């Protein structure tokens, strides 16, 4: 009895046989195991770091970095420090501008400068290009010479824009990505109606992803249920059918939707042949938002079915039977007992499909037409065509933040530890 | 029921037998069940469950006992024959309209609901008032000694507690009939025995009819009023526990219930209820009770309980006395399990009770053993 009491008291500082504290000994013993585990994943960690984390960090950095104006107009920006923004800057600023432009012309960097300022304030490209070409012939007073070269130099708006763009790090691209900008006074204001694109595009992307997710849930749930309740040999066959799309090229699947749904496609031909519609009434089923949703639903469906299936597989048949024996009709039992137990699968499937859908690129690019374009298509446009990488990075950053927010929300509501992907 | 039974529990059960009378709550009439259209899992079942009775379906796995239970619950349909509940045919009544409580093998408690919600489920389905639901749930939980566990989830309960919640849930809507499908299979031995008594007492207090499926014979003997022993899709014997143990009607039941010495031989002289049997290989002649023998010269299996064999009996006390050699002694506390070779068999078991003045045996010793005619039952070969 006394011994038991003694050992219970000793719980606080148990030592090993050689007198070391147990906790220390355990940690030491576990350390080898931990290092082994670390070395096993090290190659993958390095790979991910180089190919995934580093580019993302670089992209996020680029979305706030704004070096062009600061590099090309250092003197002008220094002179602009004391500018009050009420009247045109004084002669010193114009002199500095002439000097900066002269240097930019020698370095052949004024083209980039013109592009950058033009992105912020359209129509200023020719202003900078023309002024830079003539800057060698300028003589004091520079104010007259510069404003004579291009009339926009005498607008306050121009100078406000240059002063703003002088910040080496700026949220300006994020504002642009949300259809916001600065006015002359430096207040954040919405862009004019005609220049708003991104906010609607984000909303459309969000909305289309939501529709795709719901369509996948509605279509996938019964299939997952069938898979989970069928005998093994039929279930395996069905599972192969579900997985078949994974073994087919994404491009092939998307283009086959074009073959099926286009105006001269299989489905329209069939409808015309059956006499349901006239030859001149063919439906526009692809190269629009609906076509994108249909194709994306088909492509993303397995990502919904698999998590649902893996959860449903673990729900014993006896739950439904118990509910029925307690007096619940089949559907009521299904709704009150079966469906709540599939919630982790529903959460995982929806999260997965939504995250994949929100950043989907290839399908909307191929079948999206005008109104089926999504935010990723615009990011690609800014990467490849307009070469405004900073804006592309900002758009991508917002998308990333959205996905992380969703993940956080899911964790709050359902708990990530209940996430089941298979 | 055995009127000449000397066991205390036997007479108790006799009293019970009269209290539930001849009023059947469930009747199976010539029920057959096949899953694949080739094999019959249940063959021609006729069975009545009396009102207030605790009936156990006992048998090895694959014997058809669970199928019978599932047909009664409505989860399997009978391929042929009629099932009647309180006189009404229920073959086409869906499970939720049968009003039968059921306890499942792994409890089937709903993991996303609290204990209270689990118990309230059948009451909500029946659209009871909130106050009434709370009162009934409270009483049901008190019955299984789990008052105060309302807000726990099944995952936070021990196996025994989950088991009790499952029992309470099957009883909370006051069904006349409760089915239990090996409900104690997942519990460890001590807890299982404790729960056996608990379920038995609940049954006695509430007077509901219970149909209980198990493959554990001691569980069946402990709890039941009557036991139906299943094998190969048929009821081999339907009787009270004492009857089943002491008067098995065929070799399967004799072997399945309790320990049993089997001696095979051929009937040489059939005389009404008793017969003489010549053991194989010249093992000798045994006087036995003719329970199920095909006739004179027919092969038969003799069944003899190990505790009904006496060591060194008085002269003339038994018609069957044989020489035996003690092979092995195993001390088990309350009795000594003695293996002897006798009549050419060397796996003949005798249970020698560890009572005052019992025979002290040594291995290799030569003894005389004997048994009564009525303890040795001649059954089918």
Summarize the structure.
Chain A is mainly alpha-helical. Chain A has three domains: 2-64, no CATH class; 67-167, no CATH class; 198-418, MetI-like fold.
Features:
heterodimer; A: 422 residues; mainly alpha; MetI-like fold; two-stranded antiparallel ribbon; B: 381 residues; alpha+beta; Rossmann fold; OB fold (Dihydrolipoamide Acetyltransferase, E2P); 2 domains; 6-stranded mixed β-sheet; 5-stranded mixed beta barrel; 25% helix; 34% strand; disordered N terminus
Question: Can you walk me through this structure?
Answer:
The complex is a heterodimer of chains A (422) and B (381). Chain A has 422 residues and is mostly helical. Chain A has three domains: 2-64, no CATH class; 67-167, no CATH class; 198-418, MetI-like (MetI-like fold, Orthogonal Bundle). Chain A is 69% helix and 1% strand. Chain A has helices at 2-9, 22-64, 67-72, 74-80, 91-107, 110-120, 125-134, 142-149, 156-165, 172-177, 198-229, 232-243, 250-261, 266-274, 289-312, 317-325, 330-341, 343-358, 362-367, 375-384, 389-413; strands at residues 180-182, 188-190. In chain A, helix 6 runs antiparallel to helix 7 and helix 15 runs antiparallel to helix 18 (343-358). Chain A is extended and about 95 Å long. With 381 residues, chain B is an alpha+beta fold. Chain B has two domains: 8-100 and 175-251, Rossmann fold (3-Layer(aba) Sandwich); 259-379, Nucleic acid-binding proteins (OB fold (Dihydrolipoamide Acetyltransferase, E2P)). Helices cover 25% and strands 34% of the residues of chain B. In chain B, the strands form four sheets. Chain B has a six-stranded mixed β-sheet, with helices on both faces. A five-stranded mixed barrel of chain B has the order 11-12-13-20-14. The longest helix of chain B is centred in the middle third of the chain and has 18 residues, at 189-206. The relative contact order of chain B is 0.11. The interface between A and B is medium-sized, with 20 and 28 residues.
């Amino acid at each position: 009895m006394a011994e038991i009491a003694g050992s219970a008291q000793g719980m606080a500082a148990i030592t090993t046989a050689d007198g070391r504290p147990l906790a220390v000994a355990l940690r030491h013993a576990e350390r080898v195991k931990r290092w082994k585990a670390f070395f096993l994943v090290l190659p993958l960690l390095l790979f991910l770091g180089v190919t995934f984390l580093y580019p993302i960090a670089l992209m996020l950095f680029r979305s706030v970095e704004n070096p062009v104006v600061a590099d090309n107009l250092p003197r002008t920006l220094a002179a602009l420090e004391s500018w009050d923004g009420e009247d045109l800057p004084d002669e010193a600023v114009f002199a500095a501008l002439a000097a900066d432009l002269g240097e930019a012309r020698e370095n052949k960097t004024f083209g980039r400068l013109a592009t950058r300022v033009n992105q912020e304030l359209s129509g200023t490209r020719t202003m900078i290009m023309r002024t830079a070409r003539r800057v060698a012939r300028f003589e004091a007073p520079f104010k007259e010479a510069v404003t004579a070269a291009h009339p926009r130099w005498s607008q306050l708006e121009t100078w406000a824009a240059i002063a703003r763009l002088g910040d080496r790090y700026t949220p300006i691209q994020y504002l642009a990505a949300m259809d916001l900008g600065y006015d002359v006074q430096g207040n954040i204001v919405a862009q004019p109606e005609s220049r708003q694109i991104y906010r609607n595009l984000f909303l459309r992307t969000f909305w289309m992803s939501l529709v795709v997710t719901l369509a996948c849930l509605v279509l996938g749930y019964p299939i997952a249920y069938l898979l989970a309740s069928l005998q093994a040999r039929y279930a395996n066959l069905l599972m192969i059918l579900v997985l078949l799309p994974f073994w087919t090229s994404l491009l092939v699947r998307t283009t086959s939707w074009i073959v099926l749904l286009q105006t001269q496609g299989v489905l329209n031909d069939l409808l015309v042949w059956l006499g349901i519609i006239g030859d001149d009434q063919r439906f526009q089923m692809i190269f629009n938002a609906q076509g994108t949703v249909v194709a994306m639903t088909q492509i993303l469906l397995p990502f919904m079915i698999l998590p649902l299936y893996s959860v449903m597989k673990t729900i014993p048949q006896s739950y439904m039977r118990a509910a029925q024996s307690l007096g619940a009709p089949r559907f009521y039992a299904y709704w009150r007992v079966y469906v709540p137990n599939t919630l982790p699968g529903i959460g995982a499937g929806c999260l997965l499909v939504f995250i994949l859908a929100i950043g989907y690129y290839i399908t909307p690019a191929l079948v999206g037409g005008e109104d089926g374009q999504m935010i990723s298509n615009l990011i690609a446009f800014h990467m490849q065509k307009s070469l405004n990488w900073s804006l592309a990075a900002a758009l991508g950053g917002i998308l990333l933040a959205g996905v992380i927010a969703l993940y956080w929300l899911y964790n709050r509501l359902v708990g990530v530890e209940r996430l089941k992907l298979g | 029921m055995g009127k000449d039974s000397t066991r205390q529990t036997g007479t108790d059960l006799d009293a019970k037998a009269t209290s539930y009378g001849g009023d059947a709550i469930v009747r199976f009439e010539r029920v057959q069940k096949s899953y694949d259209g080739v094999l019959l899992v249940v063959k021609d079942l006729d069975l009545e469950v009396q009102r207030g009775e605790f009936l156990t379906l006992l048998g090895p796995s694959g014997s058809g006992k669970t199928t019978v239970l599932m047909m009664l619950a409505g989860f399997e349909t009978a391929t042929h024959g009629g099932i009647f509940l309180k006189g009404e045919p229920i073959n086409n009544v869906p499970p939720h309209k049968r009003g039968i409580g059921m306890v499942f093998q792994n409890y089937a408690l709903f993991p996303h609901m609290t204990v209270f919600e689990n118990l309230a489920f059948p009451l909500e389905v029946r659209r009871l008032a909130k106050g009434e639901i709370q009162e009934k749930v409270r009483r049901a939980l008190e019955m299984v000694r789990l008052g105060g566990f309302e807000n726990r989830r099944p995952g936070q309960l021990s196996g025994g507690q989950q088991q009790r919640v499952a029992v309470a849930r099957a009883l909370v809507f006051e069904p006349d009939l409760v089915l239990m499908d090996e409900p104690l299979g997942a519990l460890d031995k001590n807890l299982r025995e404790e729960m056996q008594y608990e379920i038995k007492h609940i049954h006695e207090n509430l007077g509901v009819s219970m149909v209980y499926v198990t493959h554990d014979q001691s569980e069946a003997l402990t709890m039941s009023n009557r036991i139906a022993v299943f094998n190969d899709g048929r009821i081999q014997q339907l009787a009270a526990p004492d009857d089943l143990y002491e008067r098995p009607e065929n070799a399967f039941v004799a072997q399945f219930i309790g320990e049993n010495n089997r001696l095979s031989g051929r009937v040489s002289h059939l005389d009404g209820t008793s017969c003489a049997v010549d053991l194989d290989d010249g093992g000798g002649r045994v006087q036995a009770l003719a329970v199920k023998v095909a006739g004179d010269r027919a092969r038969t299996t003799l069944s003899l309980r190990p505790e009904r064999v006496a060591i060194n009996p008085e002269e003339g006390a038994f018609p069957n006395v044989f020489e035996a050699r003690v092979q092995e002694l195993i001390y088990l506390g309350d009795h000594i399990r003695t293996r002897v070779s006798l009549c050419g068999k060397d796996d003949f078991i005798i249970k020698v009770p560890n009572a005052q003045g019992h025979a002290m045996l040594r291995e290799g010793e030569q003894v005389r053993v004997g048994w009564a005619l009525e303890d040795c039952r001649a059954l089918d070969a």
